[in-house]
Each structure stands twice: as C-alpha cells, then as structure tokens.
Amino acid sequence: MSGALLVTESRVAVVTDLGRARGPALGLPVNGALDQYSARVGNILVANDEGAPIIEVTAFDLAFTADADVLLAVTGAPMGVRVDGVPRPMWEPVSVRAGQSVSLAGMTEGLRTYVAVHGGFDVPLLLGSCAPDTVAGFGTVLAPGTALPVRRSIDPIVNPYFDMSLFNLDVLVPYLGGDAIIDVTDGPDAEQFAGTADRLLREPFTVTAKSNHIGLRLTGDLPVRRSTEEVISRGVPVGAVEVPPGDELLVLHRGRGVTAGYPVLAVVAPLSLDDLGQVRPGQRVRFRHSTVEQAERNARLWRDRLDALRQRIGTIYSCLGVAAQLGLPEAVPSAAADHTIAWEVHS
Amino acid sequence: MNGIEIAPCGPAALRVTGVSGDRERDWRTVHHLARGLAAEAPAGYLGSIPTYESVLVEFDALATTGARIRSVVDALLDAIDADAPLSERPRRFTVPVVYGGEHGPDLDDVARLTGLDAAEVVRLHGEPTYTVRCLGAPGGSPMLDGPAFPVPVPRLASPRTSVPVGAISVAGRQATLTPAVAPGGWCVIGRTPLRVMDLTQEPPVPYRPGDTLRFRAIDDAEFARLDGAMLRAEEVLA
C-alpha cells in the first residue's frame, strides 16, 4: 500500500537525492543534497537506500499531512518537529499515522533539514536522479497543495510505554553554530597564487547572501592570482575554491557548472562540504589546511560510521519484528535477540 | 604514457592533463580516457568531465581512494591509441544565427576589442566547421575552438545574471551556444531560434564530442519561422 504527503505549508523545499552522477559527463552539475551526511543518515534511519529521494527543506517551515501510515526521520539543521502538535525528536525514526499532520518549524541554526520517508517518493528522474537542476529547469518543488506520492506505507510502530521516542540511536549530530571549520587540500593551481595563497588560512571569511547551491561567496582577505593568462574551460571539482574578478572568494558546491576557466586554489574536503551546505549568510568560515591522505581517512571513518549505523538500525527493526515489512533481511544477531519485545507493532 | 600530468583535486577527483604539445592528440587522449573509465566503471567511480586537453575524473571518497582510481587511469592511458579518432563518422549540425542587435548585444564590443568591424566578426565566426570539443556548463553547451580573431576576446567585466537560451557567444579563444538560461560572462554576439536541450533524451543535447557544427547567418523572418524547433543532426548519405 502507498500514499502521499499532502503539503500544507512550504516556502523552499524540494525532493532531492545524493545527486546526478551521470550529469557531469554530459555538462549537467551533480546537484543533490547539500548536506550529504544528514541525507544519508535520514535514509538509513528509515531503512532506505542512502540514495533514495528525500525532502530538503531550506530555512523555512514545512508542514504536511500524511494520508497513509508512514515511517519518517528528520535530520540536518535543527527544527521543531511536531506530529499532531506533539513534539518529536530529530535523528530518530518517527511513526506517523494516516491523517496526522507533521510540522517542521523555527530552524534555529544551520540552513537545511531533511525528511526521509520509508520507501522514498515517486518523483520524476533525469539521468537516474530526482535532484533538482535549476539550469535545466528540472525538479520536484514542494508548494502548498502538492501531493507527494510515497512509495510504501508502513504500519505504525509504537513504543507502548511512553509513546514518545521509538528508539534513540545516539547518531552523531553535526554542530552547526559558531564559526564553521572547513578542511581544504591544495588545489592543482595553487602555485598561481604564490605568496598570497595562505591568506585563505589566516583569517576567517564571512558568507554573503549571494550564496546558494551553485556556490558560496565569501568576503575576507583574498588571495591574489599572479598569472593573467586565459585559462581554457576545464572540469572543476565540487568544492573548488576560486578567486574570480571582484571582491569575493567563490567556493563551488554541488550545483556548480561543470566547466570553468578559473584556476583552482584549493579544494574543500567532502565532509566539510556538508558543513558548507549548512552555513548561513553572515556566518564565519575558517579554512584549515589538510592533506588528501587525511581527507581520505576522514571519509573512510565516516563510511564506517554510516555502515555501523545501518547495522544497528537493521538489528533494532529485526527485534521489533518489522524487518520484513521494511524490506530488511530477518537475520537477528543472537546477542540482540534477548532484548526484544519492549515494543509492539500495531497493524 | 608520456606527455600527461595527473594532479589530485582533493580526495574525490583527479585532473589528468595532456601536455604533449599536440592539442589534437591531448584532446583525443582525455576523451578516450573518459570513455575507457565509463566502460570499465571501477568501484566508487562516479564519472569524468573531459574538455579540451584535460579531464576531471570524479569518484566517491567514501567508496574508493585516489590511488585505486589512479592505477586504473594509468593502465588505461598505457592502452589508449591517441591517434584513433573519437568518432568514425562524426555527425554534422548547422546552427542558424541572427547576429547583433537585441540578439547579439556584445557584437559591436567584440568588433572593437578585436580591431575588426562587426561584419568581419560575423564572417570569421561563420567561416569554420567547428569540432565539438566537449560538453560544458551550462547544460551541455557545445564547447568549440574560437573563430580566428586576431586576439582573444576578454570576458565581460561584470557577468550577466541571465543569458537566454540559444545565445551564441565567444570568450578567450573559445566559442559556444547556450542550451539553458544561466548567468554568463561570455560576449553574446547572436542567437539561434533552435532549441538544443530535450530532457526526455539521454544525453539531453543532440551532439557529442567529435561531432561537427557550423553557424549560418539568418534574418529576423527566418528566426521567427524556426523559433522553437529542435536542433538535429543533418542527414548524411551513407
């Protein structure tokens, strides 16, 4: 059985995923969730593939009514989550019954919040991805009145003792306040900024209001490009730090045009790109020098954490007896099988 | 392979640049490499952006490492025949263009900056049979070698916030047309009435690297007649 989320309030919210991997070779940016960690965790919490379609809410409140029983999780920038007016936690699975209304309100810090629903959403794909592309004019934008089809309904899962939290997994929650510390590695054209490249690392930069999913523009003490030769267009990586003419630093994000003619001073590490997906205009950014090897180690650590989380989630859903309903393997590790049964499944 | 430089771009990309001194050879090399990687699809490989003489190879830092991708790149480079053409039978495209006026607001500036008159700029732009070097931003633009202007064309000091679909533009020693509305810093010298992007197709643009493209000057009446038609490859008699 499937259903839909009926959107009642939305200002800037879209359905996205981890990005259009086939796009860049064809001249289209990768796009996708700007905080990939939060998007991946959201999908893991509701037993989805990490790349399943997910709602990305930017800055403004969102409200919808579910017309079927759904299992959802809210991750990313902190917002007040309520189901029929009752506060519910973020970073945990939340069971919502048909007819209940869900509201996300009052984002206090950070910029992007994610709503994952078990089964994902039925939305149009372009080159295998639902990620919006503002240049190509593609994507699923949520507006009041939108009925967003949910692929799979899931019977309510209830904790009979408190009817509050299904389970708390102690997920690592990113801290989004204060100055953002952003790891960068040397770019392939760093030598073109000889003598001033380290300005990037010395003083903090301030994010300006012209920042978006294509790139962040920051003010500060800018490195100066020494060469003036025309650079012929070439592929630029997501995370490229450039100094275009003008008085701002440009950090390209996932909506970046895939080719450009500016030298690449530095490249933001993948995990720090998630942090840049959460910084607000006016917030300060401190760049910290890293090496490719260190950035690779951090990425592997992240991968291990996500894998461990998926395993714990699978174990818990098995213990709750809902693994089959969620499409998960039934195998229950013996150690975990002993602490079951505290909760029941209402069908 | 000699004449190649490989530089890491963070932990999720490598830039492979041909430095053989032979631009045609470097161009073929990086496009053959991109196709080889797509065919081999090593674990964690995401895709490549081949351009004129370099290719950005992208991969998932959570699933593989630069060293692993590098070893696949090295093996492919050893096996590539850099003399082999990208396409045995390039397709041909002709793009009708209204030059100057409201459709080409920078035509007179380009003439001034290159020391030519506007008619000469149009003539030089319409003269060559261009090779589609690569697909670029925005939206799969066909990136071309520029016309034989005496000097490179500077980019606009202040980029436009919105360049319309079909804009025909030049910058540096490059030329292109714009499949989708986007900001842009290139000089717009004309506009085609044809649409080039179709999101129901893969790829969404009809040309690919190695195909050829010509521009043909038209008047406003023909612009109105062709407005909104799709750009298609010409029929080639076998």
UniProtKB/TrEMBL annotation, chain A:
InterPro entries: CT_A_B, Cyclophilin-like_dom_sf, PxpC. GO terms for molecular function: ATP binding; hydrolase activity. Keywords: ATP-binding, Hydrolase, Nucleotide-binding. It comes from the Bacteria. The keyword Ubl conjugation does not apply. Residues 25-306 form the Carboxyltransferase domain. It holds the Pfam family CT_A_B. This is Allophanate hydrolase. It comes from Arenivirga flava.
Automatic annotation (TrEMBL), chain B:
It comes from Arenivirga flava. This is Allophanate hydrolase. Coiled coil: none annotated. Residues 4-207 form the Carboxyltransferase domain. Keywords: ATP-binding, Hydrolase, Nucleotide-binding. GO terms for molecular function: ATP binding; hydrolase activity. Gene3D superfamilies: 3.30.1360.40, Cyclophilin-like.
